[in-house]
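Subgroup meeting minutes
Present: P.N., E.W., G.H.
Scribe: E.W.

1. P.N. recapped why we're keeping a running log of single-chain structure predictions: easier to compare across weeks, and new members can see raw inputs and outputs side by side.
2. G.H. added today's entry (170 aa).
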Amino acid sequence: MVRPRTRPPYEADERTQLLGWFDMQRAVVHWKCEGLSETDAHRAVLPASPRLTAAGLVSHLRWVEHYWFEVMFLGRPAVGPRFDPDTEDADMRVDGIPLAQLLKEYEQQCAVTDGIVAGHALEDVGRHPDFEIAEANLRWMLFHMIEETARHAGHLDAVREIIDGEKGYY
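Output recorded in log:
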């Protein structure tokens, strides 16, 4: 699925605006990865942040959507690299995994998230019994994921500019 890099209509209802802003940020993530070689996709550009790579950020965004919408909201089992207590930044450890695969997995997770969101009211609250933060409602989770995705799209802006000079807002 190709998500548009356009802002939602000014007069749109709340759900349309939330999902429009979310989709725009997701589209920026894909855009910032276009044309990157595997070497560049896995290149760390900040010495103190060796996991901050384009590939690592894509993987992180995939797993953070899983975390919020499947685990916290639906109450599914807390599995995946975000729950690995023995490995710091486990969701960003992607050495040897092709960027195309990571982008595909991210898009698949986005589709799962879209289905979850479509089937629930913004006022519905999360269900995971082991995490207090699961008490947040779907609206809060969507706002948080817009924040999270936009923050990392900004990281991708900087990573891409450092790697090859490519830049652009959206």
